[in-house]
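$ fold --in a.seq
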Amino acid sequence: MLTEINFDGIIGPSHNYAGLSRGNIASASHAGDVSQPRAAALQGIDKMRHNLALGLPQGFFMPLDRPDAPWLATLDTTQENAESHLRAQAWSASSMWAANAATVSPAPDSADGKCHLTVANLVTMPHRSHEWPGTLAQLRLAFANPAFAVHAPVPAPFGDEGAANHMRLCSGHGGQGVEIFVYGVGGGRFPARQHLDASKAIARRHRLDPARTLFIRQSDTAIQGGAFHNDVVAVANEHVLFTHETAFEDREAAHAEIRAAFPAVEIVEVPANAVSLPDAIRSYLFNAQLVTLPDSDGMGLVLPTEAQDTPAVWNWLEAHVAGNGPIRRLLPVNVRQSMANGGGPACLRLRVVADPATVDPRFIADEAKLDRVADVVGKYWPEAIAAGDLASASLASDVRKARAALLAELDLGELG
């Protein structure tokens, strides 16, 4: 039976605040701070437990091997000798944000009846551009069943940042949907990371029906305001599109196009005069998991606790729930370590509509397995990493041992 499974990235032992992501205001503002990899990973595990308790299927992905010595070797340098900015890029734990792992088109949308996944190339950001080989290996292992087709990345220079710029509307997750690719246009102080050509290539590769596939331009106002991905200003679930007023470049045309392709859509728009774009970005109101609650007529919004700390945001949400809107429950979670690096609850997960029985069971979570992951994290993950620690050979060794211990615990040694 097809169902939506959220695959979260386990936050890796190299989690640090290097401020590498241009256009990501939170990342830049915390550059140089001391990170807490152990606390970060445990927060992520608690979020997965929270979603399991709601009755939602949950999976996970492994951290990648960091620091990435083979990548540094392609630049003819090493962990010990690299310039500080290259060393930081080699240490990046940003694969934890699984929303950037791939773009996913469920089987009902594809002409060949397979669930298609295209690994994101992430070429716009140097620290992320070397993620895809490790991510691709993991996707090919988790989704090796013939029900899936896993694809290599769109070639450079066409930037693709995965599901963070992709939405799907449908009557139910297991039915045919309308897929929406949101792209940006370059210019200004911050780069547009999702290219239209990349999105179109993925739609062709996934064998989508052109009549049920939309390409909508993200607002340059949103990009320059710090919405480096569409999922910072809009999220969809089944028939609901939850969006900020400034999300799309031509708001009226975008809404009309969406309604024409999927007449049953319910667009829940937050006006800019109620929640400003800076407040929406600061609180990550839209970088939330909008989920269908089992055995319920409504949806829940799994959102960061920062939303509670932003009065305009929380006031709007409480009024929406009181007004009997489609979002019936507000479900705050603490992911502050991820938020400080610019990633909310939605950044940490990749949505895959599939039959759980077709997924490699090593990647499917339950409480007992998360207990085992938490035990490894508690024993091996560093408690803190400061900027100057990235030059430490002993820390690099400890980080690699930590990841190896997790792979061994979950019988995933082939990812080593």
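$ fold --in b.seq
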Amino acid sequence: MKRSLSVLALLACLCTPAQAQSVAEFYKGKTIRMIVGSSPGDYDSWARLTVRHLTRYVPGNPNFVVENMPGAGSLIATNHLYNRAAQDGTVIGSVSRNIPNYAFAKKPNANFDPLKFHWIGSPEMTNRGCFARSDLGINRPEDLFQRELLVGTDGAGTSLSELPVLLKNLLGMKIRTVDGYKGSNDIVLAMQRGEVGGICQTVTAFAQSAQPMLDAGTFRILFTTERERVPRFKGVPTIFEYTKTEEERAILDFQASALETGRPWLAPPGVPADRIHALRRAFDATMQDEDFRADAAKRGFVVNPRTGEQVEAVLRKVAAFPPQLLARMKELAKR
């Protein structure tokens, strides 16, 4: 009996340090893999910029390595993070803001539950719009009911194809998608060559690759996708001004809800709560760091962050979208 008690006591001593391991002790000497669900571009640039400063605020000061895992509008990366990645806090990700809505709308291959991810935060908020060459005779949204616009995308079901397909099927706009491009930068080059006439994406991303063309008037923004007009785009209408029914407006609200999550970061479902808390607070501190903000300004980035808790609250609201409208959206996503 005494021997048994001694063995149990020894086992307890051996187990206690691991169980009581602090976040700093866990991360010390480790490397966190930051998986970006797209090719080099705006998400990638934000991720690489942020982790250079984030390491100072994560307890234990781990190193970071950024890995691109593009494909299917971030679905490949998101499925990996949910189903295959380490669940201990050594792997986190930055994926398309449209990813949660893919799952809520029950799109094919969305093998994850957005509400089971741990959302860390977002470094910026932005608006979304559709842009076109200025020499096509398509100067206003009204023209899209009369003239066809070829819009470049990086494949069916991605964030770059989702909006134009929805506008075609929901509102009857004459938009035809052209797939096969390797991200938004490739599409902007195709617009310059005249291969396609337009693109639908965030205004931040478009400005990074095409601001000179906007300034010169070679390209123009036709409309934005939020309910209210964006003050900095004077005279530019919102797509909601071309809706006729409450159902159309509700569906566009759901589509626009992705913008409220910003450019979201997330961690796999099984990561311990204390590590998630540490990552969230480290992210928040980085967003306020003067050196980080200075580096962001040099790149033309505007830091307008959201906390992980704020992102999670948005997603819980979106998850309550009426099932019948989700079913309708699934039909509207078909080409």
